[in-house]
Amino acid sequence: MALLLEHEFxxxxxxxxxxxxxxxxxxxxxPPFFGETGLGDCLGTPIVYSPVKADLTGNIKKIRAVYDSNxxxxxxxxxxxxxxxxxxxxxxxxxxxxxxxxxxxxxLKFMLVLLQSISDGERDEExxxxxxxxxxxxYEIALKKYHGWMLQKLFTGSVYALxxxxxxxxxxxxxxxxxxxxSIEKIHxxxxxxxxxxxxxYEMYTKMNAELSYKA
Length: 216
Hints:
Blueprint lengths: L1 H4 L14 H8 L21 H21 L7 H12 L7 H24 L12 H11 L6 H10 L6 H8 L7 H28 L9
């Protein structure tokens, strides 16, 4: 799957220490999933997804800027949280790359739950080529509790403007005609690589008491 597999994530090491630079380089190629002219428009044109893409891109840049300021000190994502916790004191974790990574992981969670739901064959039996069921599940799990009433309404309404599953799979292949079974297998490969990494990031935030529940 061109978009998902052309930039591989490094396998999660046994100590779950995720190297910052390889992670950022891999994740930097995922915002087009939410739509970008010339790169697939995977979720079509619902305006509500533009902020999600912008949020992913902006947070990647914020984390990269912190990393570039001292690559040795910020070699791993855990290094970033540990250093910023000491540096920012009571303002932490609602600041710096710690906050950026917190929102980045939520956007990635939405993407992964959506793809996992499609891969698992979950669907509206009356409209099997729609992905509303998959998108709503992803939103409920990954983002809804962090959004205020207005954003929740926008997201709920946006599912009616999402593309057909067949069009999403074609966009993920960058326009190539591929059998659905082949595309689903590539999604599964992507999820197998990325899900353990994202789970480790969530676990890190829980262990360091860095998770925040305020609404955007």
